[in-house]
Amino acid sequence: MADKKHILVVEDEEHLATGIKYNLDAEGYRVTIASDGPTALKMIQDGESIDLVILDLMLPGMSGYTVCEALRAGANDVPVLILSARTLTEDRTRGFKVGADQYMTKPFDLDEFLSRVKSLLALYALRAEKRAARQKAEAAEKAPAIYQFGNATVNFDLFEVVVGGQTSRVTPLEMRLLRYFIDNQGRVVPRRELLERVWDLPGYLNTRAPDQFIRRLRKLFEPDPAEPRYFLTIRDAGYRFVPEGAEKGAAGEGEAKEETEGSRGGRAPAGEAADDA
Q: What are residue 102's phi and psi, to 5 degrees?
């Protein structure tokens, strides 16, 4: 049936994946199995309609941590249920830090598992409703398609920016972040707010996604990305867009703060996650 919820099971142990699929099929769900991390991530990023991801951590090619972190960095808010043999508190903590919604250990109770699946699917439906309402409100505002600051011109319709006569293409998420900064220019925007309003993710997540995307904006727009004048980091507060340009050196402390926050979180960079899974 077309209205069946689609669940992606990412598990490399064939007998376990088959057993999970059997029980989910019996509940009326549509189930797809991926046996490694890269395959699962490609399916989702290519636009496959997925309502829930059940994710093992110790996977070939890419750890479950890395898969989940990549999804959240790309603003994908599909619910993720980690199902792993890892039982240590630090494993659970790391799973939540990279964006998992729930964490269960193997072996698991089937009734509890099915209950969690049901609750996460309801959560995704609620997220989708909120996202649709926000997008409708944004469209109703009819914001200008062209915005200029410094020596830059931003074309929101074409997903292009022209800086100093050089044209660059930007992604929809980069444009969304840029639009949010423009709409809130001059105001300090907390990281939590960016996660909730731009990424559609819970604000408590400890992720470097905002830092990474702001670095991209600086590379595009700043004459010297190491000394930003337009996209500033405000220590202990968040970020601030200043279209007229701040005094040189105004964000020096903020750059140091970003590195401190990253080390304080205790999470390995995405490229290292697969090595210890």
A: -145, 160
Q: Which CATH architecture has domain 143-265?
A: Orthogonal Bundle (1.10)
Q: Which of 58-62, 141-145, 206-210 has the lowest mean pLDDT?
A: 141-145
Question: What percentage of the chain exceeds 90 in pLDDT?
Answer: 53
CB 194 within 8 A of CB 180: yes
Phi-psi region of 238 (alpha: psi -120 to 50; beta: other; left: phi over 0): left
Average pLDDT over residues 81-85: 95
> 182 exposed, middle or buried (CB, 10 Å; 0-12, 13-18, 19+)?
middle
Burial 52-79 (b: 16+ CB within 10 A, else e): bbbbbbbbeebbbbbbbbbbbbebbbbb
Q: What is the pLDDT of residue 132?
A: 74
Is it the case that residue 124 has pLDDT exceeding 90? no
Q: How far apart are CA 124 and CA 53, in angstroms?
A: 11
Distance CA 68, CA 272 (A): 14
The answer to whether the peptide bond before residue 107 is cis (omega within 30 degrees of 0) is yes
| CATH 3.40.50.2300 domain extents, the chain | 6-138
CATH superfamily ID and name for 6-138: Response regulator (3.40.50.2300)
Q: Which two three-digit tokens encode residue 55? A: 């994710």
